[in-house]
Amino acid sequence: MVQRLLAPGEIEALDHTAIPRLLLPQPRSLFSARAARLRRLANNEIKGIPVGATLRGYLLLMAALVDAQAAVTLALPSDAGALAAAIDIPGDAAIAQALNHNMPPLPVSGARPAAWRGVFDSLLAQMSTLADSQPQFSSVVDELRALTGAELEGCADAVLAQFGDGINPLHAPFVAAALQVVWTLQASLLDARRVQPLVTGALCPVCSSHPVASVIRIGGQSQGYRYLQCGICASEWHMVRVKCSNCEENAHVAYQSLEDADTGAAPAPDTINKANDPSRVARAETCDDCHSYRKIFNQEHDYDVEPLADDLASLMLDVLVGEAGYTRASGNPLLWFSAA
Predict the structure, then answer these.
(1) How confident is the model at residue 52 (pLDDT cuts 50, 70, 90)?
(2) What are phi and psi of 227, to 5 degrees?
């Protein structure tokens, strides 16, 4: 018997309980794994994501920053109740009200948790201890410590809104790193079963931030499904494949890689279901409806893919797709460019 293929609309109508709709982050392992991946990428060890010498130093710098995130995270209480108090997670009533109205329970808009400033100070202290191995940290830490409260909050506003004008590209990744720690820890304390999808699937249902990239997961109920990963809280939410993660149209989606361009034509017989195919580890999903793109990483071809780290390392793919006329749908919190 031949199994009938489902159309995109039919796929979305399936019993959602069979698919994990939301994967919450595990911050006590996430940052250490991300730092390790950044170092492997910097050393050009990942087939399918070639890294040139000019990018290597930056990846190692960001690996040290992510190490600092891991250290700050591990220094916070492991008990859920104590952690919730330490990072100012909203109360049960506020979270319930948001969920009852299909709103994100931990929105990045509005007032920030006061605890973020303490996390930021702890992050600066961690970076100071790394100044010998990463001398670039020294001057940046001094500059960040010299910011007024208003300047620091303004930088945080710009980071969370992904508004690049007027932001110092040297300061932004370090401010973003502190915000990531707070929101990732808060997200880890939620009950994934209670968080509902937003009206638009293009924004994080936990904090309403943009995804940094998407990833095809393997293992368990997530096998073969595509998830978008939030750039701030690291939550991952399901979105069907071959659907633009920006405008959510599916008629003109194509995939570009550094080794070849896949526009939907049937693959060669020797590449069907081929594991460890470097050309499929990192690809750009382009859409001719909104003329944007977002990268998609495939765990089926590299078990250790890490969306934020792999996105940061694959700038060559950004150049390729940008030259083809597509605009990046959203940025990476650890990389900012000067508007000048």
Answers:
(1) very high
(2) -125, 145
Under 8 Å CB-to-CB from 166, ≥6 apart: which residues? 158, 339
Q: What is the pLDDT of residue 269?
A: 45
Structure tokens given for 77: 């209480």
Domain of residue 182, CATH code:
3.90.1670.10
In a domain, 5, yes or no: no
In the chain, pLDDT over 70 holds for what percent of residues? Answer: 89
CA angle 206, 208, 213 (to 5 degrees): 90
244 and 166 part of one domain: no
The token pair that represents 287 in the structure block: 């859409």
Distance of CA 284 to the CA centre of its chain: 15
Q: Which two tokens stand for residue 38?
A: 């950044």
Q: What is the DSSP string of 208-270?
A: -PPEEEEEE--SGGGTT-EEEEETTT--EEE--SSS-TTT---TTEEEEESS-EESSPPPPGG
pLDDT of 219 over the 90 cut: no
Here the tokens at position 223 are: 């096998």
108 lies in the same domain as 181: yes
Domain that holds residue 103: 25-188
If you average pLDDT over residues 187-194, what whole number do you get?
A: 96
Is residue 266 pLDDT above 90, yes or no?
A: no
Residues 170 and 223 in one domain: no
Closest among 124, 126, 127 to 74, alpha carbons compared: 126
pTM of structure: 0.89
Q: How far is CA 265 from the centre of its chain?
A: 29
User: Do residue 48 and residue 172 come from a single domain?
Assistant: yes
Question: How many domains are there within the chain?
Answer: 2
Q: State which of 188, 203, 219 marks the end of a domain.
A: 188
Reply yes or no on whether the pLDDT at 15 is more than 80: no
Phi, psi of 208 (to 5 degrees): 70, 15
